[in-house]
Amino acid sequence: MATQLSVNHLLGIKELTPGDIELIFNTADNFKDVINRPIKKVPSLRDTTVSNLFFENSTRTRLSFELAEKRLSADIINFSSSSSSLNKGESLLDTVKNILAMKVDIIVMRHPKPGAAVFLSKHIDAKIINAGDGTHEHPSQALLDAYSIREKLGRIKGVKVAIVGDIMHSRVALSNILCLKKLGAEVMVCGPKTLIPKHIESLGVKVETDLRKALGWCDVANMLRIQLERQDQQYFPSIREYVMLYGVNKKLLDSINKNIVVMHPGPINRGVEVTSDVADSKQSIILDQVENGVAIRMAILYLIAGKGEN
Ligand code: CP
Fold first, then answer.
1. 310 lies in some domain
2. How many whole angstroms from 225 Cα to the centroid of ligand 1?
3. What is the total count of domains within the chain?
4. Closest ligand 1 atom, residue 266 Cα
């Protein structure tokens, strides 16, 4: 079993090996024990400075990374684009170079443009963790999702996962597909044809437009939000019609004769992709995902900082 990642940055799941993912999970297991102790802090990143750069809105990812950094005793500086000099015309590269001049070791960045994290990794001398780049990848979300499936079902290999909703505009969908496939899960995407990218089968996934059939097939349903902010045109007639065809309510869930695990990366639009009685049901592991996010992000930070054993 490797004790170091094969990558210097976490830019996407695409660059990770299955061994890297196992290492992140095993490291997260240890950190999950730590964060359930009365004293939740360890000195692992005591001499490391992390900058959280968020050029796009976030609740879970930003707070989860920040808490993970605090639990590891890192020094932290936070940056939010809405209150920065970007509004005065400063470029991404100049912004980051100025932040690096303050001797930052790791940058955690969310950005609306696909490829922003890769771009930074090629131009600056710090470790980069991609916290979501446009419609491209959201690797820490996929890792915490797969980790939560492993925790709930005891395995990932052979588990059938349906990813339901706006596949086209979702970075969570792509990162989940790549991660789950690397770990041997079977993956199906389900949604309106207009929200499923052409040729997605080339990633080794099944495609289904009938929600009831997808639910009948899967062990786990990962329900995704409609990303209206990324849609440049209308992909379905109305939200009402979308809910009728692709929303999961308790009646539908109960009519499927199996105990499907329900997931959602958040933020949830209650009454659209899932109703409240599904989101808050015993079958939902949505808040377990959030809890696991801290342990997974502690593991990512620790390993990207090069603190794995030699
Ligand atoms: N799941 C997720 O990325 O949520 P936030 O946008 O709140 O970070």
1. no
2. 11
3. 2
4. 1
